[in-house]
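Section 3.1: Structural characterization of target chains.
Under the original work plan, the team committed to producing a structural model for every single-chain target entering the pipeline before any wet-lab resources were allocated. The record below documents one such target. The sequence was received from the expression subgroup and is listed exactly as submitted; it comprises 152 residues.
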Amino acid sequence: MSIAGTGDLKEVVVADLKAYAALVAVLPDATQIKEAFYQGTAFDLPGVRVQVESLRPINDREQCNHMRAFLAIRSYSEKPSSDEASDVALLIMKRLHRRYLKKTGAAPNFYIWLRSTGMIGPTLVRQNLWMAETDFSGTLYDSAAWVGADAA
């Protein structure tokens, strides 16, 4: 068994959002979808940041290698109104609510089912900078432990 980390999950979610044409169409380009702790200077707004809040093992039986994942995906906008940040957050919710994602290839390989747990905001971060947050939870399965996931 190979255990997925927060970076593995962020990579899969960021890639899925970058492949979502409706979201990319309202951003300057797909490169504005990044992990939450991006420290570079090459970014424009509106933008999206993906953060894995936690990965927690589900210890309800022996030999269980499932984990509960909690994610916060934030959208930012510099418009005078909060509408743009809210609209981007709604697109993210539409894309990822009840969404099945998988990582294959280089280990660790896993599957996850995401569900929206709500939307926060938009809130004013500073003058003309709005942030809306969409939260998700999901159950992450090691691919070796969950036979039949590709049939979904």
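The longest strand covers residues 110-126.
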